[in-house]
Specification:
CATH superfamily of the largest domain: Transmembrane di-heme cytochromes, Chain C
Radius of gyration: 22 Å
Helix content: 55-70%
CATH class of the largest domain: Mainly Alpha
Structural class: alpha+beta
Number of helices: 9
Number of strands: 6
Mean pLDDT: 87
Low-confidence stretches: 260-266
Number of domains: 2
Order of helices and strands: HEEEEEEHHHHHHHH
Strand order of the largest sheet: 1-2-3-4
Length: 266
């Protein structure tokens, strides 16, 4: 059956591209100052650091580490201090994880801002199209029966008993709605709160979030949550049948195992 409209498919792949470039360019920007704080400013006479990825000198040479509040984890070779043998350098995220691969804050910011506005544009396009074609109400808004089915749905996912149906199950609805209506809007809002131009036009925005440094910390935390969603999303695609799932997002057509359930009015 025809499951995904052209608007859904186009915006889905557009988000995949934009979020990839936002991630790798964002890590380039983070490398310029690899620490996160709470409040309106970074601590000098005080310590308000919640995360730091850096390198320090150890007994046998440089050591990469990740420090979360007062807990430090050695990450040499992965984070803080990494690189090819004989060419290791102090750097929060390694070159293979950033664009550009070398240190270039200016280029990283240009790429990041371009794809940030591309994300905003595709979100608006998707919102209008999904409202008009009914996808939003039909497939993403949880109904009473969805909440009743949530415990069963959780158990079936844990048991890897995944059903091929036209409609999204409860966990799919909740996860997609959480990303589209909570995480992505918060990502955009926190990004705007870090902009000096936006601060001048709406100085209340960073204050609403607890300060510019808090906005930066929230921006990073949302990135981590989106990355976790992506990993789980790919695992579920593989578990549910990658050919069927990919065909659905490329052609719109989806093969089901059960007849479509009758629509229930709540």
């Amino acid at each position: 059956m025809y499951r995904q409209s052209a608007w859904t498919r186009v915006t889905h792949w557009a988000w995949a591209v934009t979020l990839f470039f936002l991630l790798v360019s964002g890590l380039q920007i983070f490398n310029a100052h690899p620490a996160l704080y709470i409040g309106d400013q970074s601590g000098t006479a005080f310590d308000n650091t919640v995360l730091r990825i850096d390198a320090r000198r150890g007994a046998e040479g440089p050591v990469g580490y990740v420090r979360i509040f007062d807990r430090e984890i050695e990450t040499t070779g992965v984070l803080g201090y990494s690189g090819a043998a004989g060419r290791m350098e102090a750097r929060a995220f390694p070159g293979w994880a950033t664009i550009p691969s070398f240190r270039d804050l200016g280029t990283g910011r240009i790429i990041h801002f371009f794809f940030a506005w591309a994300l905003v544009g595709t979100l608006l396009i998707w919102l209008v199209a999904s409202s008009l074609n009914g996808h939003l109400k039909r497939d993403l808004v949880p109904r009473l029966r969805d909440w009743r089915a949530l415990p069963r749905d959780i158990w079936e996912h844990l048991s890897l008993r995944l059903h091929h149906r036209r409609k999204y199950n409860t966990l799919q609805k909740l996860s997609y709605a959480g990303v589209l209506f909570v995480l992505l809007p918060l990502m955009i809002i926190t990004g705007l709160a870090m902009s000096p131009g936006m601060n001048a036009a709406a100085n209340w925005l960073p204050e609403l979030l607890g300060g510019r440094q808090t906005a930066r910390t929230l921006h990073f935390a949302i990135m981590v949550l989106l990355l976790l969603f992506f990993v789980v999303h790919i695992l579920m695609v593989l578990a549910a049948g990658p050919i069927n799932e990919m065909r659905s997002m490329v052609t719109g057509w989806y093969k089901t195992r059960e007849p479509e359930e009758a629509e229930e009015t709540i």
